[in-house]
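Fig. S4 source data, part A: sequence.
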Amino acid sequence: MTNKPMLSVERELLKKWHRDLDACQRVIWLAGGFDPAYCKDAQDCLKEMDEALAKLATPHQGESAAYVQFLADVMTAAGLVAHGKQDKKFAERLADECARLQVEHFALPVAAANSIPAYEAPETGEKWSLTGDNGSWDYDSLDELLKDNYGHDSDGDGHPASYRAGLYEGGTVYRGTECKDDPATFLPDQDDLLEHMSERAYDSDAGEWADNYPALDSDAKLELERAMRPLKAWARKHCQPEFFTIKDITPHIVTVEDVSRSRKS
């Protein structure tokens, strides 16, 4: 076994050679009147270059060798059409490769959408309120509530009826559990989206003929449901609400220990 001499070539230079050689062989092949073996040798060389470039590529660099070859074939097909030529076998090979790449590249987003996990509400803690009324759940702990309200009598506007005693031992406060809605529920659902499309269609210049638009079969509706899953995941990642509701409200009697602990914290 003999060792072939190795030549180190920069990736960008190899890509330039690839483009130049490809362009030359296309011109010769489309013009006709030349030895077809030249084009075949050039295409074999281009394939070797594609393989070398594919090995150099990272997930963030370029396309696979198969995809690069597919794009080259598309350009060749365009040249055939432009010159009024036909090649049935070449067309069949191009169609097969197109179908393969369609499955490879477009099945992934569908699979990713189907793999989105069910919604899990973020963990929420307890909330505390002086009165238990809506809009009064301002405290994350009893200590915070006591620091702001313990011993603070209020004269109100000076009228005896507006006097409010402050919070002391034996007073009642309220504890509850914070609940946040799933942000995906704030998105338009499938019916909302289709209704929006229908309304826009009716408002278009061709609205007179937009009856029953869009008319979808069950497969199309299923695809729409799948297409909306990544949007729901986006909302859950970026649009978590700051507002909340309260459940499991229970009264709490303030003790001496509560007040003592709040003063130490």
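Fig. S4 source data, part B ends here. Confidence is low (pLDDT under 50) at residues 58-63.
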